[in-house]
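Worked Example 4.2. Consider the chain below.
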Amino acid sequence: MSEVTIYTKAYCPYCVRAKSVLDNKGVVYQEIRIDEQPALRPQMIERAAGRTTVPQIFVGTQHIGGCDDMLALDAAGKLDPLLQS
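Applying the procedure from the previous section yields the following structure tokens:
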């Protein structure tokens, strides 16, 4: 299974939704809270090609985007194969 990293903030409903989808799929992920570790925000922005909103989700080294992007991948049947790669 691919390593999943998700950049989040507290009180972010999109972050909660994204983590819930991953939890329901049994995915173990590394959560990086940029509100608790603001020094890591520039790293997130660089990795996410300039995107500044949370969540930003990565499967391995591939940036899949935010919550809506992940949900669209899931609806298209492309998320599970990506997670299994």
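The beta strands are 4-8, 29-33, 56-59, 62-65. The mean pLDDT is 96. Compare this with Example 4.1 before moving on.
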